[in-house]
Amino acid sequence: MLIESEATLEERLSQPWPVTIKTLGEYDGDILILGIGGKMGPSLARLIQRADAELGQRRRLIGVSRFSNSTLRHQLEIEGIQTIAANALDTAQVQALPDSEIVIHMTGMKFGTGTNPGLTWATNTLGPSKICERYPQSRILAFSTGNVYPLVPSHSKGCPEDTPLEASGEYANAAIGRERIFDYYSRENRTAISLLRLNYAVEPRYGVLHDIGKMVWNNEVINLAMGLVNVIWQGDANNLALCALSDASSPAQPINIAGAEIISVKSIADQFAHHFGKPPRFLGEEAPTALLNDGRAAHRRYAAPRVAVADVIHWTADWIASGKRSFNKPTHFQTRDGKF
Fold it and tell me: CB neighbours of 160 closer than 8 A, spacing ≥ 6?
């Protein structure tokens, strides 16, 4: 079944799994989402609301962001989510945030790193340190990235959580720095933290699949050097992230959030070409290595992703061909040197 509208899309993205409902039922305190204005934040908040409704549980759900998009803030307020405009780099503003049993840290900076590396490092390290100092007794879900891992052989299953971290480029170094900050405070204050190494969330408005689909639709050349990718339906990614609350610990616990499939970029482009009825254009050949996460540990611990890549490609192809809204935020998944 196709996704006819953004309202239908948001409904699908915010469907809680039974195990997610069970996990959230173990905690009855407030939840604060820092960075709710990003691509995943609104649907994560709605997912929590729906899980709480199933539980018959009422808690305060607080969304924090700079809120450059006032329309989003108004919509969240209508939906019963308290919003606070704050800058995570401002100590006074962070200290003024309300207490919360659970803090979900979704802020970060990736794109623009090449022109402003100082801001990237500040956002990804100083911001987390201020949050950890404000919430030493809270349970923290800290979103990270698969970019903290090295490129691995394309025939592998990807990097498991015990892979030594190896940065390529300024952003990946800052992302490792972010994890080290969370780990330091987790040990220092005995704060229970899960580090969520995500690679890559997708839905029809953005993500690796959207990027490849748009390239096929626009007859653009697709570089095959980064020949393989992990992708995961954003709804599945948010469910897995919330399930990781049960494994937050001190020292901080890394958890890969990735799809069940590793799929080739060429195969993705060919599937979009079939939907669109137009041939894809390729450049180069697949390199022998790729940026890949092994998400199987989380799948065994919580549940396997429910939405297949082929389904998301189908939905995304229709979304693009119908001219529906795009976030216009390319992932630059092709990047192999870490320069964003």
Answer: 256, 294, 296, 297
d(CA 162, CA 169): 21
- 3-state per-residue secondary structure call for the chain: CCCCCHHHHHHHHCCCCHHHHHHHCCCCCCEEEECCCCCCHHHHHHHHHHHHHHHCCCCCEEEEECCCCHHHHHHHHHCCCEEEECCCCCHHHHHCCCCCCEEEECCCCCCCCCCCHHHHHHHHHHHHHHHHHHCCCCEEEEEEEHHHCCCEECCCCCECCCCCCCCCCHHHHHHHHHHHHHHHHHHHHCCEEEEEEEECEEECCECHHHHHHHHHHCCCEEECCCCEEECEEHHHHHHHHHHHHHHCECCCEEEEEECCCEEEHHHHHHHHHHHHCCCCEEECCCCCEECCECCHHHHHHCCCCCCCHHHHHHHHHHHHHCCCCCCCCCCCCCCCCCCC
Work out whether strand 82-85 and strand 281-283 pair parallel, antiparallel, or are unpaired: unpaired
Would strands 152-153 and 289-290 be described as parallel, antiparallel, or unpaired? antiparallel
Q: Strands 201-202 and 139-145: what pairing?
A: unpaired
Is the whole-model pTM more than 0.85? yes
pLDDT digit string (tens) for the chain, length 340 residues: 899 999 999 999 999 999 999 999 999 999 999 999 999 999 999 999 999 999 999 899 999 999 988 899 999 999 999 999 999 999 999 999 999 999 999 999 876 666 788 999 999 999 999 999 999 999 999 999 999 999 999 999 999 999 999 888 889 999 999 999 999 999 999 999 999 999 999 999 999 999 999 999 999 999 999 999 999 999 999 999 999 999 999 999 999 999 999 999 999 999 999 999 999 999 999 999 999 999 999 999 999 999 999 999 999 999 999 999 999 989 988 888 877 6
